[in-house]
Design brief:
3 domains; binds 6-O-phosphono-alpha-D-glucopyranose; 581 residues; 7-stranded mixed β-sheet; Alpha-D-Glucose-1,6-Bisphosphate, Chain A, domain 3; 19 helices; alpha/beta; EC 5.4.2.2; TATA-Binding Protein; carbohydrate metabolism; binds zinc ion
């Protein structure tokens, strides 16, 4: 059939500014007539027709409510805007890291390569008719659109008057693999539905030693558990962990992707991944012996949480431990790491590894896009953030399943001559051994959610002023706790990208102490109501006889200092944080 292109008149919607990870709104906002269409057309216009005509686009996401409708709309608009072909993961499912992999690796039957992608996800936010939907655009390198593009998209949303759509194009069946061909005024247009996992699984197999991991998983001493929290990771977990690596079916929890994530909050942390946390023996005590290893992912499978038996690995430690073991345990890195990077509020555990192994090291603002630039320039192999993100230069997004495979590789490597021995080296052993070698960074994060935006601004303005006077700071510190060392440096973090020279200002206030402790204050860039103040507290302990303490207990003096320094209660009226991680 030959479809027709319609020009539909429209008027702008307010608030279509893409945040750190695209446009996220309640479903009821997205379903308004023209709302999604305006944003998609504004994106096409920002990319310019020259880049859109003839392009190959990937359109898929984490499968949350409204995704299927959104995919059909984007297909019709792609056709009308002269896109040559659209690639859709079966049932519209592709994890964010898999999209990045597909853009970078997949080659179509006719040799075509993708030039970009609409990813339909609101990441770790809940889904369903009353919850969140989201859309973001990723570029040719597989990474999120840079600010220069997202700013243009936003400008376009403010002035849009019409969009193009092939209204008579029939809906494409995205539930089965295959190609559907159409003809339009500008020539052929195809939609190819492909297996969501194949390209990603192939990439993972080229990075890790699957044979070695398989041996670990088949050891009777090793038990394993993976919780996809009903997110899109479920579409990969069975293929990778069960089919490829031989894990038992029963080791998969909540691995059927659901439009509403089973009513849960698909965020892999100690608060929301309750079922896994209990199974791992970290919640209420149970009679069943917990597995040796547990992990969880968020809705779009780019975040990860790593657990051992009755043991939590902080994301800051996780990236440091992966970096320290990568060359030995992961074939992809066998010729060495190009460099490592962490976001500013992430603990300095990675810094110590970088120093010891003489690796290039970068400290970037919060947000994955900063790592992408370093990777494109060949400066960084492994990176991570305290917010449960870990990844490498195999793609340009953080990668939840990659992190699990990295940990399984380290466990398999450490146990390779001992799989039939009495006791395996455990996750906890690896972390404690790491602390003994490099010292431990006790770490905690206090979140003050939904604080009055004005009050949060005032608190930050007060800290900006305070950081310029070390004398004043140290008087407050001393007055609060005599057992805390003194502040030797304080600043407002600013980053100059070593690749493109761009400068990012106002990225948080840092207080650096003589003994290596740090306090960091910043406002969250992803909240949806009011403001969220994040307070990151970290203390370095080199003495290996003192690295086994409870972290909240070890950090109590610094917490006291932080609350006094920031006048937290005075500004916010809050006597306690909403979440502690
Ligand atoms: C998203 C980004 C991360 C960031 C996290 C926390 O997941 O992809 O790069 O670390 O949000 O951001 P926030 O501004 O809320 O602390
Ligand atoms: Zn996510």
């Amino acid at each position: 059939m030959v479809f027709k292109v319609s020009k539909v008149q429209t008027t702008p919607f307010e608030g279509q500014k893409p945040g750190t990870s695209g446009l996220r709104k309640k479903v009821k906002v997205f379903v308004q007539p023209h709302y999604l269409e305006n944003f998609v057309q504004s994106t096409f216009n920002a990319l310019t027709p020259a880049k859109v005509r003839g392009a190959t686009l990937v359109v898929s996401g984490d499968g949350r409510y409204y995704s299927k409708d959104a995919i059909q709309i984007i297909i019709k608009m792609s056709a009308a805007n002269g896109v040559r072909r659209v690639w859709v993961g079966q049932n519209g499912l592709l994890s964010t890291p898999a999209v990045s992999a597909v853009i970078r690796e997949r080659v179509g039957a006719d040799g075509s390569k993708a030039t970009g992608s609409f990813i339909l996800t609101a990441s770790h936010n809940p889904g369903g008719p009353h919850e969140d939907f989201g859309i973001k655009y990723n570029m040719e390198n597989g990474g999120p659109a840079p600010e220069s593009i997202t700013d243009k998209i936003f400008e376009n949303t403010k002035t849009i008057t019409e969009y193009l759509i092939a209204e008579d194009l029939p809906n494409v069946d995205i539930s089965s693999v295959g190609v559907t061909n159409f003809g339009g005024p500008e020539g052929p247009f195809d939609v190819e539905v492909f297996d969501s996992a194949s390209d990603y699984v192939k990439l993972m197999k080229s990075i890790f030693d699957f044979e070695l991991i398989r041996k670990l998983l088949s050891s009777p001493k090793f038990t394993f558990c993976y919780d996809a929290l009903h997110g899109v990771a479920g579409a990969y977990a069975h293929r990778i962990f069960v089919e490829e690596l031989g894990a038992k079916e029963s080791s998969l929890l909540n691995c059927v992707p659901k439009e509403d994530f089973g009513g849960g909050h698909p965020d892999p942390n100690l608060t929301y991944a309750k079922e896994l946390v209990n199974r791992m023996g970290l919640g209420k005590s149970s009679e069943v012996e917990p597995p040796e290893f547990g992990a969880a992912a968020d809705g779009d499978a780019d975040r990860n949480m790593i657990l051992g038996k009755r043991f939590f690995v902080t994301p800051s430690d996780s990236v440091a431990i992966i970096a320290a073991n990568a060359v030995d345990a992961i074939p992809y890195f066998s010729s060495g790491l190009k460099g490592v990077a962490r976001s500013m509020p992430t603990s300095a555990a990675l810094d110590v590894v970088a120093k010891n192994l003489k690796l290039k090291f970068f400290e970037v603002p919060t947000g994955w896009k900063f790592f992408g630039n370093l990777m494109d320039a060949g400066l960084c192999s492994v990176c991570g953030e305290e917010s449960f993100g870990t990844g490498s230069d195999h793609i340009r997004e953080k990668d939840g399943i990659w992190a699990v495979l990295a940990w399984l590789s380290i466990l398999a490597y450490k146990n390779k001559d001992n799989l039939n021995g009495n006791k395996l080296v455990t996750v906890e052993d690896i972390v404690r051994q790491h602390w003994a070698t490099y010292g431990r960074h006790y770490y905690t994060r206090y979140d003050y959610e939904n604080v009055d935006a004005g009050a949060a601004k005032e608190l930050m303005a007060y800290l900006v002023k305070l950081q310029s006077s070390l004398d004043e700071i140290n008087t407050i510190v001393k007055g609060a706790r005599s057992d805390v060392s003194k502040v030797v440096n304080a600043d407002e973090f600013e980053y100059k990208d070593p690749v493109d020279g761009s400068i990012s200002k106002h990225q948080g206030i840092r207080f650096l102490f003589e003994d290596g402790s740090r306090l960091v204050f910043r406002l969250s860039g992803t909240g949806s109501e009011g403001a969220t103040i994040r307070l990151y507290i970290e203390q370095y302990e080199k003495d290996s006889s003192k690295t086994g303490r409870d972290s909240q207990e070890a950090l109590a003096p610094l917490v006291e200092v932080a609350l006094k320094l920031s006048k937290m209660q005075e500004f916010t009226g809050r006597s306690a944080p909403t979440v502690i991680t």
